[in-house]
Structures are given as structure tokens and as C-alpha cells.
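Sample pair:
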Amino acid sequence: MIGGLEKFPALIMKPDPSLRKRLLIAAILVPIFILFAWMGNWPFAILVAIIITMAAFELWQLFRKGGFAPSLVLMLVFISLAIILRHLLNFQFSDLLLAVLVLAAMFYHVLEYQKDGKNSAINFFLTLGGPLYLGWLGAYAVSIRNMDNGLYWILLVIVIIVIADTGAYAIGRKFGRHKMFPRVSPQKSWEGYIAGIVTGILAGWGVAALWHGFIPAFLPVHGIILGVVISILAPMGDFGESMLKRYFNVKDSGTILLDHGGFLDRIDSILWAITIGYYLIIFIAR
């Protein structure tokens, strides 16, 4: 072999089948997301609702495997309503939606307990938690898209978190030695985390610089700010979902996306990114 590399097999970067499958799925999903984001309005809101309800179904299945029984109907109805109302009215009447969710969930699980249901008190809080975690946070994607220049903002946020996650995965898998929270997620390392921050910042800077060519109000520093904060904080969404999976002793929330797992596996850090991104955009775009 050239240069005697046969003496250093550890230095030879072998193809990573798992990474290839992840990139293949991303190559399919990303153009679909971009298309619907470009269309905006109802097509984008419906796409977000579909993704979030699929993730909610996976979350419901996790709880069912653990012996709990939150109401799938209430979860899906209120998640859909949260996204629809956010699209139509932004945050107006959101307090009413939350109040109705609490009352409806308690009514349902009181009846469940009367029928000799098990874990009804816990199920009540799970029925509340699903729509809040997935519906309330997931609707921030619609909120960002409905902003001025919302197409550019939502793409910027999504590119940052996707590139940060990919960088963290690729570098962490090859060079990760120091584990962050081994009980929660044994594969996540500080090396991967730092790589995710670096790649997220670079992605934010690069995309914002590109957008600046179309819209002068977009500045590279906007992308850097979003890249720094999102890349540092959003991985906690991944750890949060890992906590759920470890509790129920499952590897992935689903299998529909091959090595990507399920929809819940793919949007865990995105939920954090769009929520944080929304308020950062309000601050930096004033």
C-alpha cells in the first residue's frame, strides 16, 4: 500500500454503513421539507402536523409498552389543534386550548379509573405531557415560517441543527472517548458534542452569509448567534428522548426511517432548536 498505511489500519477511515443510511434518509427527507417550507401556508402546517402526530404515535407506543395508557385520541387531537391554531392565530387563544386539554384529559382518565383502569393518575399527566412536549414545541416550526422572511429563518435553523447533529454523530462515532451522560446515552461523547457545536456554527455562518446575498437584512452574525446557542442547547432534546428510551429499554422509538429510527428520534433536538430559534430570531431581527 502507498506510504505504508498498511501499518496503521486504525488510521484508515472505513466506510460507515450506518452513516450512509442516515445520509440517504436525509437526502430524501430534506428536499421534501424544503419544498413544503417553500410553499409555506397550509402545506407546511400540514406537513408539520403529520410529522408531529407520527412522533406522538411513537411516544404513545413507548408508554403502552411500559404499561401506561395515555389517551391517544386526546394527544393527536390537541397536537393537531395546537399546530392549526398556531398557524391561524399565532399564540392567540392558546390559553384556552391548554385549559380545555387539562379539563378533557382529567375527565377522560376519571372515567378510565371508574372502569377499573390502571395507572389512571399517571396516565392523566402523560396525556397532558404528550401534546405539550410535541404539539406546543413542534408548532414553533410554523411560527418561524410565518415570520417575515420565515422561509429563510426556518431553513437556517433546520440546517444548523441537522449539520450539528451530523457532525456530532460522525466525529463522536470515530473519535469519541469521553462520555457525557453515559447512563442516559452511552454513545454520546464530549468530542462529538464539541464537533456538533463547531459544525453548527459554521453551518449557521455559511447559510446566513448565503441568505445575505438575497436579503441584505440577513447578516452572517445572525447565523453565528443561532449556531452557537442552538448547537450548545438543542442536544439536550436528544438526551431527553434517550432518557425516555432508556426507561422503557428500547433502542429507537420506531423503525420507519431505518437507521434514523422513528420520527420521534429525528425531531428530538429539532424541537429544542425551533423553540430556541424562534425567540432568538425575535431578539436578533428587531
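The CA atoms of residues 68 and 122 lie 8 Å apart.
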